[in-house]
Amino acid sequence: MVNTLQKPEYDEIRPGIKVPAKETILTPRFYTTDFEEMAKMDISANEEELQAILEEFRTDYNRHHFVRDESFQQSWDHIDGEKRRLFIEFLERSCTAEFSGFLLYKELGRRLKDRSPVLAECFNLMSRDEARHAGFLNKAMSDFNLSLDLGFLTKSRNYTFFKPKFIFYATYLSEKIGYWRYITIYRHLEQHPEDQIYPIFKFFENWCQDENRHGDFFDAIMKAQPNTLNDWRARLWCRFFLLSVFATMYLNDTQRADFYACLGLEARSYDKEVIEKTNETAGRVFPIILDVNNPEFYDRLEICVSNNEQLRAIDASDAPAILKGLRKLPIFLSNGWQFLKLYLMKPIPVEQLVGTVR
Fold first, then answer.
1. Torsions phi, psi of 17, nearest 5?
2. What's the pLDDT score for residue 286?
3. How far is it, in rounded angstroms, from Cα 200 to Cα 178?
4. Is 147 helix (H, G, I), strand (E, B) or coil?
5. Cα distance between the two ends of the chain
6. Over the chain, what is the mean pLDDT?
7. With 0-12 CB in 10 A as exposed, 13-18 as middle and 19+ as buried, what is 58?
8. Beta-strand pair 159-161/30-32
9. Is the pLDDT at 212 greater than 90, yes or no?
10. Which of 9, 34, 231, 261 has the fewest CB atoms found within 10 Å of its own CB?
């Protein structure tokens, strides 16, 4: 007889504390930057907008939002087997991403306190939001008898260094794509309450507004630093970060299609909607956006999806490490080639976007 309450086993640091997922090119990154360069930034060209955003942060619209209600007070043993594993993985990845934002913003707030008070307070208040998000997700994991040791995560993860302008591109897109991911799931579940398998998704409508405001902050910073948007280098970097964010999400989500199926969503359709909306939104600040409606865009991403399935099969095999490496090499080269061809696809200058969100 099949045990319908079978629960996946996890490596634990200590009882109930999950060993963090292994870092890969597709896992959430932890970032650091050149704090001195950030402190020297002149924001006077757009200080009025930044001050208005700061006032919104101070208002703290979600200060009473992240409170667990009675809907959490039940057993979740009916989410079992593979569904349970996928759900815990979703919570862990989301918690790690939010906590990464908290660490970066908190450190920026501390480092800029005496040099750029407006930016410092904005970063501190965004770190407040990210801490709430990470804590809420980590508490959700405890409903499944697991949690993350965020202190251990702080010390054990590798940190990626990005210059400030790259931090702006990456975090702007991260926050805006986060908004569209959350609101798309929320709207779907609002229309299909039968797919509401866990109450955390009911919080997404207000939650995603934090992401949206954070994105608006980075939008305003980039407008205060014209060199991040107005030269040929900016166009190349905007293409790179748009492609990196979209490709990472697509490869991650197609690998976890069963999770989205639990919510009544088809992963590829969901991703295409989120990518299209984020791409349009980026046109409000970036000088170019990607031609994501060109069939070649997803055809090449699908080749990468197939390649990644082959890589996972090789990792799962009993072949010696050196043989695995040799088998992986042509697949890595294929992925690199697809990414290059995607990068070289002609982008769409925003001046052509008549009648869009811009």
1. -110, 110
2. 96
3. 15
4. strand
5. 58
6. 92
7. exposed
8. parallel
9. yes
10. 9
Which contiguous run of DSSP H or E holds residue 109? helix 81-112
Phi, psi of 309 (to 5 degrees): -65, -40
- Residue 264 token pair: 């009544």
Cα 8 to Cα 21: distance, rounded to the nearest angstrom: 14
Give mean pLDDT, residues 199-216.
96
Give phi and psi for 288, each to the nearest 5.
-140, 160
Indicate whether 288 pLDDT > 90: yes
For residue 327, pLDDT beyond 60: yes
Long-range contact pairs involving 270-273 (C-beta distance under 8 Å, separation at least 24) = 270/184, 270/185, 272/298, 273/180, 273/184
Dihedral sign computed on CA atoms, order 143, 146, 152, 153: negative
The closest alpha carbon to 263, from 181, 335, 153, belongs to 181
Distances from the Cα of 307 to the Cαs of 187, 310, 328, in angstroms?
32, 5, 9
pLDDT digits (tens, 9 = 90+) for 337-354: 999 999 999 999 998 765
Rounded CA separation 79/203 (Å): 19
Residue holding tokens 């990464």?
100
Least confident of 16-30, 195-209, 309-323: 16-30
pLDDT of residue 81: 87
Q: How many CB atoms lie within 10 A of CB 101?
A: 25
3-state secondary structure of 345: coil
C-alpha to C-alpha distance for 209 and 222, rounded to whole angstroms: 20
Token output for 176? 């805006």
- Helix count (H) and strand count (E) of the chain? 12, 6
